[in-house]
Structures are given as structure tokens and as C-alpha cells.
């Protein structure tokens, strides 16, 4: 999935990890491994962003994109199979929804500079909207303090993430 990257204000992984902890705290799940993504989308996002809407759309409207954020409309469009997947616990789809929520919460008011107009390689990960949103989804879904002693398979099952996401997240804990 190739998404346009935007040059945004820098956030380190530690910054993002703290934000994820804040989200979990607000959701009352600091000690609960499985994060309720749909409850966050449907009940918390509208409180945090007044006028927030999400819309489930037929596949042909988004094509290869799983979901998109429309900052000006304060809205997220979610492909119907992705919405259904997230609701039934498919890890990749759960992460997609958190990823878009982060774009709206954190990037909506600063998506002004398209990375495409630069040499992409000059953008540091921590200044990329895509890296930040991916990191946020991973940090919310796989909290270090609860998962640090788990195997990748345990993380996959208990956190409701893909194996790729479990391995990626474990990689961030090394060194
Ligand atoms: Zn994105």
C-alpha cells in the first residue's frame, strides 16, 4: 500500500509511545492487552474531534486503498471489507483504523507539505506522516509493558494484530 507521505512535525517513538499510553488510559485499558479499536473509533474519536465522522464505503470507491482520511471534512472513509475485518478482529484492519485516526487527530491540521514534492529519501522517518501513523497503531495495539515477555504468536493472538505487526513491534524493543 503506497500512501502519500507528508512532512510533519517530528515525533520520536518515545513521544508516540506516550501518546499511545494516554489513549489507553483514557479508554480504561492500561492493564488490558486487547485494545477495543471499534469502541475508540465510534465513541472516543467523536469526543476528541468535534464533528468527526466515519463512513463505510464500497470497495470500488477506494480501490486499493484500505481507508483514507479527509482532514477538511473531519472524516475517515473506510472500505467496507476493512471495517468488517476490524470488527471481526482482523489485525491488519484494526491497525488501519488506528492509523487513520492518528492522521486525523495529529496530522489533520498540518498536512500541508507533500513529501512527493521533495526527494522522499530526505525525509527522516520521525518526520513522515506514514511512519508516525504506523508507529502509533503499533504502540496502541501492542503495549510494551504488557507484552514484553510474550512470543510473537502470543502477541498476534492476544493483541489482535498481524504476525508482521507483532514482529515489527518486537523489533522496536531491541537495543
Ligand atoms: Zn497513512
List keywords for this structure.
175 residues, mainly alpha, three-stranded mixed sheet, 51% helix, 8% strand, globular, binds zinc ion
Could you give a short description of this structure?
The protein is mostly helical. The chain is built from 9 helices and 3 strands.
Q: What report would you give on this structure?
A:
The chain has one domain. Helices cover 51% and strands 8% of the residues. It is built from 9 helices and 3 strands, in the order H-H-E-H-E-E-H-H-H-H-H-H. The protein has helices spanning 13-26, 37-48, 59-62, 80-87, 91-107, 129-141, 144-147, 152-159, 163-171; strands at residues 53-57, 67-70, 75-79. Strands 1-3-2 form a 3-stranded mixed β-sheet. The two termini are 29 Å apart. The relative contact order is 0.18. The mean pLDDT is 92. It binds zinc ion. Residues 3, 99, 103, 130, 133 line the site of zinc ion (ZN). Zinc ion binds next to helix 5 and helix 6.
Largest sheet: 3 strands, mixed
Average pLDDT figure: 92
Report the uncertain regions. none
SS class: mainly alpha
Write down the secondary-structure element order.
HHEHEEHHHHHH
What share of the residues lie within helices?
Answer: 40-55%
Number of strands: 3
- Whole-Å distance between the termini? 29 Å
Radius of gyration: 16 Å
Bound molecules: zinc ion
Number of structural domains: 1
Q: How many helix segments?
A: 9
Strand order of the largest sheet: 1-3-2
Residue share in β-strands: 5-15%
Tell me, what's the shape?
Answer: globular
Amino acid at each position: 500500500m503506497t500512501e502519500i507521505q507528508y512532512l510533519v512535525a517530528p515525533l520520536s517513538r518515545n513521544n508516540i509511545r506516550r501518546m499511545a499510553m494516554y489513549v489507553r488510559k483514557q479508554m480504561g485499558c492500561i492493564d488490558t492487552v486487547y485494545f477495543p479499536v471499534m469502541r475508540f473509533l465510534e465513541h472516543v474519536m467523536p469526543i476528541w474531534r468535534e464533528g468527526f465522522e466515519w463512513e463505510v464505503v464500497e470497495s470500488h470507491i477506494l480501490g486499493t486503498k484500505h481507508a483514507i482520511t479527509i482532514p477538511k471534512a473531519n472524516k475517515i472513509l473506510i472500505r467496507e471489507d476493512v471495517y468488517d475485518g476490524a470488527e471481526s478482529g482482523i489485525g491488519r484492519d484494526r491497525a488501519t483504523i488506528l492509523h487513520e485516526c492518528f492522521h486525523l487527530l495529529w496530522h489533520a491540521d498540518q498536512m500541508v507539505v507533500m513529501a512527493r514534492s521533495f526527494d522522499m529519501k530526505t525525509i527522516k522517518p520521525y518526520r513522515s506522516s506514514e511512519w508516525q501513523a504506523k508507529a502509533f497503531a503499533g504502540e496502541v495495539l501492542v503495549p510494551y509493558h504488557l507484552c514484553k515477555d510474550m512470543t510473537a504468536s502470543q502477541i498476534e493472538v492476544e493483541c489482535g494484530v498481524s504476525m508482521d505487526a507483532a514482529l515489527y513491534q518486537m523489533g522496536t524493543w531491541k537495543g
